[in-house]
Amino acid sequence: MFEIGRVCVKLAGRDSNKKCIIVDLIDDKIVLIDGQTRRRKCNVKHLEPTAEVVKIKKNASASDVIKVFKDIGIEVKPTKPKTSTTRPKKQKVKREKTEAQDKTKKSEAKAVKKEKVESTKQTSKASLSSAREQQTSKASLSSAREQPKVAKTPAEKAPVKKDAVKPAPAKTEK
Amino acid sequence: MRSRTLRRVKVKTPGGETKVHFRLRKPAHAKCAVCKNPLKGTPRARPVDLQNMPKTQKRPERPFGGVLCSSCSRKKIKNSV
Prior knowledge:
heterodimer, A: alpha+beta, 5 strands, elongated, B: two-stranded antiparallel sheet, 2 helices
C-alpha cells in the first residue's frame, strides 16, 4: 500500500486535503512526502492512499516531484525556503511648517466658518435646498463614476432623484 | 436583582467591604456541525471581543477549522477520495 511513488491525500494538519507522493520510507510508521504539501515526515495514519502509483526514484528532488505531478495533471508551484525577516518600521513623513503659515491657515478656517454660520441664519429654506442640490449632485457624480457605461449627465440625474426621494421641495423649486 | 442573565461576582472594595457586582456571561462553546461535540481552538467570547481578535486566534489553521472537529473532517476527506 504505502510504497515509493504512491499518490496519497493528507488527512491532518494545515495541508490536509492536498495530494502528495511518498518519496521515501523512513520507518514502518513514518514516511517522507512531497508534492502540494510541504516536504516533510508524515505518519502513515495521516495519509489516505489513492489508486495511483507513479514511477519515481527514492529521495527524488522537489523539481522531479513537480514534473511527476504535471504528468498526472496537477499544478504544483515551487516554493523557496522562507527566511524570517524583521518588520519594517513605519516612518512618519514630517512636513516642515513655518509658524506664519500655520497662523494664516487657522485664520482662514475661522473666516470660512463664520461665513457658513451667517448664511444659515439668514435664509433657512434656500440654504437647505442648496444643500440638498449639492448632496444629490455629489451622489449622482459618485454613481456616475461607479457606472461609467451609463452615459447620463449629472444634471439629468438630479431631478429624477429629487422626485424619488423628496417630492415636496421639488415642486416648490420647479 | 433576581434575574440570572447576569452573573454575580463578589468584589472587595478598598474600604474592606465585599459587594456584589453584575457581569455579562460568556456564550456557549461552538459545536461541531456533524457530531455536536464542542470544538477545540475556538474561544468563548462575546462578539465585541471576537471582532478585535486576529483571525488565527478564532479557529484552527486547517480546512474545516472552526466548523468540523478533526475526526469529522478526516472522515469527510477519506470519503471524498
